């Protein structure tokens, strides 16, 4: 969408300095940072939602950030998937939301945009020290991850470490080829996951997926079990194979197909 047609309170962030300047010029305002990418399907929905909200809340600053093109900003806000939303009042974190949930975003905005600034800000957390647009900000604890993590798959029942490990083992064996990724096959929520899905699909491989964004326990436990700190993680016949870079190399050398036939 051409920037001329954006509402006057909606801007595309160009750089960390640009973000700093925009937030600093609106210290008493609520801002919504919207982390997006062009390829992520849910962002298309949220592009429209953001525009509608910008028209409805003229006093709120709406800032869209290209999550992959501006990795310094994404990392400083600990954005681990798209779409992702951070609500701020000035430099104070109000809340964070992961995923395309128009009604949740709208409700969060309604709640925060209607509160007087002094009252609201006093009960909120300051941003994490990592935040790049305010390098001399005092360390004050990591930003809350509320809203980013879904239930652990076990309802309210507490899961022991052994039970979690057993559940991971079962998940790794749910089919011959299992991809642990961010999002799912139709709607990947991270560029690395999107690329590995592309490789597996192009090779016409039959595989199931598990969205680790929906299960923080599995997300952390798999890193430990497979001794691999990131996602995607590809499992073939119950054995950990690798992440995107490894799978890409294996595809190029023909090893991936060989492994599936063997
Ligand atoms: N080069 C890696 C890239 C994967 C990567 O860096 N993933 C990050 C960002 S999506 C990750 O999973 N971080 C840990 C986490 O989010 O829990 C690969 O080959 O798979």
TrEMBL record:
One of the record's GO molecular function terms? metal ion binding
The Gene Ontology biological process terms listed for this entry are: intracellular iron ion homeostasis
The answer on whether this UniProt entry bears the keyword Membrane reads: no
Any Gene Ontology CC annotation = cytosol
The record's annotation in CDD domains points to: GRX_PICOT_like (cd03028), TRX_PICOT (cd02984)
Tell me the PROSITE patterns matching this sequence. GLUTAREDOXIN_2, THIOREDOXIN_2
Coiled-coil regions listed in the entry: none
Q: Where's the Thioredoxin domain? A: 1-173
InterPro entries, alphabetized: Glutaredoxin, GRX_PICOT-like, Monothiol_GRX-rel, Thioredoxin-like_sf, Thioredoxin_domain
Record's keyword terms, sorted: Iron, Iron-sulfur, Metal-binding
PANTHER family (UniProt xref): GLUTAREDOXIN FAMILY MEMBER, GLUTAREDOXIN-3
What task does this protein carry out?
Answer: Monothiol glutaredoxin involved in the biogenesis of iron-sulfur clusters. Binds one iron-sulfur cluster per dimer. The iron-sulfur cluster is bound between subunits, and is complexed by a bound glutathione and a cysteine residue from each subunit.
- Record family assignment: Belongs to the glutaredoxin family. Monothiol subfamily.
Identification of the protein by name: BY PROTMAP: gi|472581538|gb|EMS19272.1| monothiol glutaredoxin-5 [Rhodosporidium toruloides NP11] gi|647397009|emb|CDR39776.1| RHTO0S04e09208g1_1 [Rhodosporidium toruloides]
Q: Which organism is it from?
A: Rhodotorula toruloides
What gene does the UniProt entry assign to this protein? FGENESH: predicted gene_1.372
